[in-house]
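Researcher: I'd like a candidate sequence for this fold, 405 residues long. If you have to choose between options at a position, lean toward the conservative one.
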């Protein structure tokens, strides 16, 4: 009975303690151990509240930027197919059968070159007929002149009356008029005969043949088309708020499909009025093509850069996030993270910068990239440039690199 009670007694000594009837040197009684453990939980490594202390985020210098005052030029784009303004269509100016066509698609011609011939059998017979009529009128005029000369001699001798002389003069005038009419009729017919020859009106390249030899042609029927590729144009449009900043002669860069590098062009013409319904102004871009590397019909995209007249506070595009339609940035203020709503203005996609109208100042420290898991009020700092690679990597990993959408 007494021994059993002793088994449950714990005796404490100066250098140990009896626990469950066994003396353990250096051990503390259970109550003291529990008390010590509780004290460690309050004042030890986990802090007074039992939670692990927060690790401050440290960002590399390249991950933090300050707003920069810069100019953001506006880029206006035009797109569409290239067209050749110097284009001519050869038409049949008289009806007949196409005897020959000496060129094909892609053939190069010069102005005035004979490119085909039309058979005009009916017109040739009419030329012969008009020629015969002209000879007849010429003979009639000669006869009228001789008769009138004889009548003048008779009238001088009083052998004929004055009325007979006047009739003779009228007959002479009529004969002259008939001769002139016959000559004009022959000339008109011969003009039609010259139309039997097809001539290139401009220098260029044959774009398309609309008829083949042996085909019966009617008046004004298309025979072939010729284009001059030395100069091409691209038609585009701009808004009414931008047209005042565009002037003829403005340089543009034109990217043509199939070409590795853009081609230089310039604004040639600007329409005087806006198009109904769209409120846009037509603009024509001119491209010099002396080597004829470009072809009409190729799709092209032209970019005109309009200089910015004002200086603007800007940030990289990557620094701006959006939540529920509200743009924001993360800044480091007084050693803590803060999210600031911003109002954006003009963008420059080529430079990757955006204008900030409200929300930051030139002295603000803004995170240059968008991170997940950032918490407002968290401790944060910018690592020194020297030897900050490891610390910055730890901070970036803690903040999580995936972008916020």
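Model: Candidate sequence:
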């Amino acid at each position: 009975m007494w021994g059993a009670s002793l088994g449950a007694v714990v005796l404490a000594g100066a250098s140990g303690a009896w626990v469950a009837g066994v003396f353990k040197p250096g051990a503390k009684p259970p109550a003291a151990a529990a008390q010590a453990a509780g004290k460690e939980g309050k004042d030890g490594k986990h802090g007074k509240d039992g939670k692990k202390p927060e690790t401050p985020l440290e960002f590399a210098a390249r991950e933090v930027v300050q707003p920069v005052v810069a100019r953001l030029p506006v880029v206006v784009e035009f797109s569409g197919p290239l067209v050749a303004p110097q284009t001519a269509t050869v038409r049949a100016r008289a009806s007949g059968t196409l005897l020959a066509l000496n060129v094909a698609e892609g053939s190069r011609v010069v102005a005035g070159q004979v490119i085909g011939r039309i058979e005009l059998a009916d017109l040739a017979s009419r030329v012969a007929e008009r020629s015969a009529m002209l000879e007849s009128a010429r003979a009639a005029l000669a006869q009228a002149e001789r008769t009138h000369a004889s009548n003048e001699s008779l009238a001088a001798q009083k052998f004929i009356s004055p009325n007979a002389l006047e009739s003779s003069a009228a007959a002479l005038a009529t004969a002259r008029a008939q001769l002139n009419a016959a000559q004009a009729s022959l000339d008109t017919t011969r003009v039609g005969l010259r139309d039997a020859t097809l001539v290139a009106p401009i220098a260029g390249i044959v774009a398309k043949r609309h008829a083949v030899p042996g085909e019966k042609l009617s008046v004004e029927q298309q025979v072939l088309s010729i284009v001059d590729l030395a100069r091409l144009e691209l038609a585009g449009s701009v808004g009414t708020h931008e047209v005042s900043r565009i002037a003829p002669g403005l340089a543009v860069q034109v990217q043509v499909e199939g070409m590795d590098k853009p081609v230089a062009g310039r604004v040639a013409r600007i329409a005087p009025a806006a198009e109904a319904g769209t409120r846009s102004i037509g603009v024509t871009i001119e491209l010099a093509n002396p080597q004829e590397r470009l072809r009409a019909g190729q799709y092209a995209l032209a970019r005109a850069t309009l200089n910015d007249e004002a200086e603007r506070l800007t940030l990289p595009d990557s620094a701006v996030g959006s939540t529920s339609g509200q743009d924001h940035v993360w800044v480091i203020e007084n050693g803590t993270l803060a999210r600031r709503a911003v109002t954006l203005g003009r963008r420059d996609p080529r430079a990757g910068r955006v204008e900030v109208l409200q929300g930051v100042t030139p002295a603000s420290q803004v995170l240059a990239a968008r991170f997940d898991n950032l918490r407002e009020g968290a401790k944060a700092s910018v690592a020194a440039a020297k030897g900050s690679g490891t610390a910055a990597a730890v901070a970036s990993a803690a903040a999580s690199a995936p972008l916020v959408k």
